[in-house]
Amino acid sequence: MFLTILSFIFTIALLVAIHEFGHFWVARKLDVKVLRFSIGFGKPLFSFRGKKDNTEFVLASIPLGGYVKMLDEREGEVAKEDYHREFNQKPVLARFAIVFAGPFVNFVFAVFAFWLMFVIGIQGVMPIMGSLDRDSIAWQAGLRSGDKIISVDGKDTPTLNSVYEQLLNTFIDRKTAEVQLSDQRQLIFRLDKIDKDVDPSQFQDIIGLSLKFPDEKVIIGEVSADSPASSAGIQAGDQVLAIDGRSINHWRNLVRAIISKPDEKINIKIIRSEKVIILSVI
What we know:
Elements: H1 2-29, E1 34-49, E2 56-70, H2 92-120, H3 137-141, E3 149-152, E4 155-156, H4 160-172, E5 177-181, E6 186-189, H5 203-207, E7 218-219, H6 228-232, E8 239-243, E9 246-247, H7 251-259, E10 266-272, E11 275-281
Antiparallel strand pairs: 1-2, 3-4, 3-5, 5-6, 7-8, 8-9, 8-10, 10-11
Helix pairs in contact: 1-2
């Protein structure tokens, strides 16, 4: 909650600073004397004087706005040598430019921010497939390890989440989904075969998409006493090679393989001291 409020205040202060800088910069360019540049209202928390025109720069206690105070005879006496630098003495177009500069700079900043967002891209996991369950919708449709999904029903899917989102929308409409792969193949996911009353939490498992991760050794770090693994003879330091004949090359695959068979016996192939051993865990 605190971080949310802090982020909100920072965002408002940033937008205000950009807006007021627009007024300030154009006023300076048009030779209008700026007396104060303030971010926020109320009691000043921090301030200093600039070299040019002795302008006061202020950070105030209420960061919900700001202002640029310019020389103006309507707000106080003006020295004779500064008459030509008053805001109200400038031509209409100059005054319009100063007033318009604030919102214009905000607009330019918004365009830049959106451009930067698209340049940086969307954070997410690319939908490149790893090992797939042969009973899954994905496998039956023809999806295989290494395949990359680029669109579903004609809509781009740069991340795995976007793939699931589009598949879920199609499932709700009780339709089949057209899945386009990077190698130009097009697959048909028979989502209409899924029970319409399926638990949403099981939807991803039924579809059966599995990400491809870099291979790594799956080594047991610790075995709890009196656990099924301990009873089966699994020891710390054992490297898991396969479960029920399926190669295990990542911790995610190990967890998925175990969860998929609750209360069932599984055969775990391990390597210990350079010896391959097959153990049954019940």
